[in-house]
């Protein structure tokens, strides 16, 4: 078999694993998925690379040390990359290396492969229960950019704050609007998030007051991680852009709406967005997402030439948001939507980002922008779900919400539905702590 048919075999929907939990149709981590992350556990607090399978993690450093995983590199470059505390060095080995690891793991974990399945001592060395592991930020992120690419979201926000008749500004349909975010405050799922303080402009007062945000919100987004950078001055063509993407995560772009509304003119959000951005710990590769590729929405007007690409560049990813108040037993699902609604594609975002000559680096994170669907239960922010607080949401166990309260836990979840299996992202969770006084 050649490399491309080996890669195709990793996507075979009939392939099952000897890790039985991976064969549960509701598991996010089927053998078709194999997402990459960074973990530590009770045996070793050293952070290292792992791949999720069912309720387990495959320890890539241990597998390499056992002689069961190899990528040909100079000296021990591969061994050091998988034993590193971030995935950057592994990702920098290039797409052929990621694909080779994917193919080797898919074979080792397949039900018919006895190597690990029948060797208890070896399994004890290389398999870790997710329940016994701690997950860490998977990449060191040199730069974070956030886009604004959902037509429904941009239309809703424009209707609320400007004019429902001209909700979209003229530039929106011509380019993926974005801004440079703050990489230093990107945190991994599970990290508590403190409510920010800042300048608030109350309607009945001439000058702003300083205080805790009163309109704390989520933004349901996905993010993509750069797998191959581009040099300064060398734009990435739209047709080549997907080859520069390692994979995707769920991303919560926490937003302080009251701080944002006062500060955003003329340069865009600043303190309203910089206090925290949460991402899910597992990076799902574009290779694993390939069976879920679908057509993007029709773009009218036709984009300028540098933003055109042939073929299908959207992905069918079910997404939802859950809110659990501090003392509640159950979370309430407050929104359900799908990534396929996004107007601008990831390829167009990257082509536009670099067309000026701006360089990107391995590990750079690009947020999709809030993902809102066409119906009022498919919006990706409380701002839209409650129409800026005018329509409170009813929660399962009683009570309502307009914006986030202290102690609330917000969870993003997402998966692609295959035939009897899922390629999922796990969850992206954050609990809100009271503001500093
Ligand atoms: Ca955003």
From TrEMBL:
Active site: 153 (proton acceptor)
Transmembrane segments: none
Gene3D superfamilies: Fumarylacetoacetase, N-terminal domain, Fumarylacetoacetase-like, C-terminal domain
GO biological process, one term: homogentisate catabolic process
EC category name: hydrolase
Cofactors (names): Mg(2+); Ca(2+)
Species whose genome carries this gene: Paraburkholderia fynbosensis
Domain (Fumarylacetoacetase-like C-terminal): residue spans on this chain: 144-414
Biological or metabolic pathway of the protein: Amino-acid degradation; L-phenylalanine degradation; acetoacetate and fumarate from L-phenylalanine: step 6/6
Membership in a protein family: Belongs to the FAH family.
Keyword terms of this UniProt record: Calcium, Hydrolase, Magnesium, Metal-binding, Phenylalanine catabolism, Tyrosine catabolism
Amino-acid positions noted as binding Ca(2+) in the UniProt annotation, renumbered to this chain: 146, 219, 221
Domain Fumarylacetoacetase N-terminal: 32-138
Protein name: fumarylacetoacetase
Record: residues binding substrate: 148, 162, 260, 264, 370
Entry binding sites for Mg(2+): 253, 273, 277
Molecular function GO terms recorded: fumarylacetoacetase activity; metal ion binding
Documented EC number(s): 3.7.1.2
């Amino acid at each position: 078999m050649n490399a491309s048919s080996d890669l195709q075999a990793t996507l075979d929907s009939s392939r099952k694993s000897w890790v039985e939990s991976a064969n549960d149709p509701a598991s996010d981590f089927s053998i078709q998925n194999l997402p990459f992350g960074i973990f530590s556990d009770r045996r070793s607090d050293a952070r290292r690379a792992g791949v999720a399978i069912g309720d387990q993690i495959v320890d890539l450093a241990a597998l390499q040390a056992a002689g069961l995983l190899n990528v040909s590199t100079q000296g021990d470059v591969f061994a050091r990359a998988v034993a590193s505390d971030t995935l950057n060095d592994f990702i920098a080995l290039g797409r052929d290396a990621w694909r080779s690891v994917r193919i080797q793991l898919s074979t080792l974990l397949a039900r018919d492969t006895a190597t690990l399945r029948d060797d208890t001592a070896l399994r004890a060395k290389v398999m870790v229960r997710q329940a016994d592991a701690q997950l860490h930020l998977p990449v060191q992120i040199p730069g974070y950019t956030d886009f604004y690419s959902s037509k429904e979201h941009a239309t809703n926000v424009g209707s609320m704050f400007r004019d429902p008749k001209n909700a979209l500004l003229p530039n929106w349909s011509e380019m993926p609007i974005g801004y440079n975010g703050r990489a230093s405050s990107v945190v991994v799922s599970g990290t508590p998030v403190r409510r920010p303080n800042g300048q608030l402009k109350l309607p009945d007062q001439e000058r702003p007051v300083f205080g805790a945000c009163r309109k704390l919100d989520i933004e349901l987004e996905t993010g993509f991680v750069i797998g191959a950078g581009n040099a300064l001055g060398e734009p990435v063509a739209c047709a080549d852009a997907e080859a520069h993407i390692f994979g995707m995560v769920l991303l919560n772009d926490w937003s302080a709406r009251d701080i944002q509304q006062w500060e955003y003119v003329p340069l865009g959000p600043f303190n309203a967005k910089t206090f925290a951005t949460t991402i899910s710990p597992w990076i799902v590769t574009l290779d694993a997402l390939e069976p879920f590729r679908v057509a993007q929405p029709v773009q009218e007007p036709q984009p300028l030439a540098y933003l055109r690409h042939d073929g299908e560049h959207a992905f069918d990813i079910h997404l939802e948001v859950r809110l659990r108040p501090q003392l509640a037993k159950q979370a309430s699902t407050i929104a359900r939507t799908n990534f396929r609604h996004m107007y601008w594609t990831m390829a167009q975002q990257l082509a536009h980002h670099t067309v000026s000559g701006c360089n990107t680096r391995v590990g750079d994170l690009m947020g999709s922008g809030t993902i809102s669907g066409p119906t009022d239960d498919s919006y990706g922010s409380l701002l839209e779900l409650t129409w800026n607080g005018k329509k409170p949401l009813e929660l399962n166990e009683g009570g309502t919400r307009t914006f986030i309260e202290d102690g609330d836990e917000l969870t993003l979840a997402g998966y692609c539905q295959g035939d009897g299996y899922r390629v999922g992202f796990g969850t992206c969770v954050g609990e809100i702590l009271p503001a500093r006084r």
